[in-house]
Design goal:
It is a single chain. The protein is globular and about 45 Å long. It starts with a strand and ends with a helix. It is α/β, with parallel strands linked by helices. α1 links the parallel β1 and β2. The strands form two sheets. The chain has a five-stranded parallel sheet with strand order 2-1-3-6-7, sandwiched between helices. Strands 4-5 form a two-stranded antiparallel ribbon.
Amino acid sequence: MKVLVINGSPRKKGNVARMLAAVREEAEERGFDVTCLSVSDLNVAPCTGCMVCRSRLSCVLPEDDAQRVLGLIEACDVLVVGAPCYWGNMPGQLKVLFDRIVYGMMGESASGIPKPLHKGKKAILVVACTTPFPFNILFGQSQGVVRALKEILKWSGFKVVAAVQQGGTKKRPVTERKLRSCRRALRKI
């Protein structure tokens, strides 16, 4: 089984990275083929909104890391996405990546009805947020990140099998208990 882990956080040793490492370690222990990448290492130009990719099935912008990531998503069985909470949503760099590869995530019928291109694949989400628990969920902070990522992945055909949220990271780093939750999330595959 191929697992792709995408770290949407610019902090390579932060809470999201630790949560993703727990998922990766569990996957490797199970013998899965794991590929990890950090969005902050990628060179991805912003989408211009031209919509040509929808009919052409490729982006008109010069090739960059977006196409490479799409190839990895197409080849994976499981997608693991980690993101910190920025204003109740995912960081802009991660959103730009998904915007640039929409044509390879979701097709559409002649009448514009979305058609998922990754039906049957599974996904796991991990989110860290400085807003303390339970307010990170009640105020729509980390829950907003989960909602936005689920929206993208749902229309792409992925089934989100787990979403692990850690609040209160401003005062304390991700807990061992939450890292165990990340490991358990992989076992749902």
